[in-house]
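Table 4 source record.
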Amino acid sequence: MKLLPFYRVRFRYPQGWGVGLGSAESAEGQHFYLAEGTCEGRIQGTFRGANHPRRRADGTFEPDFQGVIETTDGASIFFEYRGYGRAYPAGARQIVGSATHLCDHPSYRWLNDSFAVGEGVVKTIREGQVELVIEWSEVVWEPIPDSALANPL
């Protein structure tokens, strides 16, 4: 397989809610955030979504993120993100994830069986406000060499 640059998404959460679970010492909880931002790259447009991540006791977020990208050429692309929002490093937490997309616009139907991986950062802008930036890469299937198929692991 190989990775091809796909798009960069940059967004903030203008609204969000959370419920703490467990003891006062535990950071575990469930959250709901509304997201707004932009995309640039092979997909360009406005980004809107809803993330309802679980926050584990170790501070790691597990996103459950769905939304839509309204492209500059009039398409609506649905997306789903999964992965980890790591609790470190402070002020620039790491993001790793996977993404799938759906679209009925002729220019973007190829997305319907594509798969993407992403890496990013949660940047603290000021107290209580963050900006998330994720670089997505398309995973492109390539055949496994015959020599590798012939030799068991």
